[in-house]
Amino acid sequence: MASGAGNLEAEAEAAEQWALVNTPLGEMWSGRTRYAAAMYFYKRGEMNAETLEVYRICARLDAENPLPIIRDRGVGKEWLRRMGYG
How many helices (H) and strands (E) does the chain have? Predict the structure, then answer.
């Protein structure tokens, strides 16, 4: 039973991080929010280092969409598919 509760907590955390990585562009602190959530997915092995680096670069740029940059650099193809971009 404890593992079931832990799994639910992990799913809830993943859902929260998914919402954060999709924080709308232009909102105050949104770039940093997206970067923090991207770090979560990187640590889980769901994002590569090159993709995370784009989120880091965009962290202080609240209105900058990291997805076109990821695409233009040719990194993170799986991540772009997951985000429904491209």
Answer: 5, 0
Q: Is 46 in contact with 81 (CB distance < 8 Å)?
A: no
42 C-beta neighbours (distance < 10 Å), count: 17
| CA distances, 19 to each of 15, 22, 30, 47 (Å) | 6, 5, 12, 16
Domain locations in the chain as residue ranges: 2-82
How do residues 39-78 score in pLDDT, each as one tens digit?
Answer: 999 999 999 999 999 999 999 999 999 999 999 999 999 9
User: Within 10 A of 74 (CB to CB), how many other CB atoms are there?
Assistant: 8
pLDDT tens string 1-40: 457 788 999 999 999 999 999 999 999 999 999 999 999 9
Q: Identify the CA nearest to 59 among candidates 42, 74, 41, 37.
A: 37
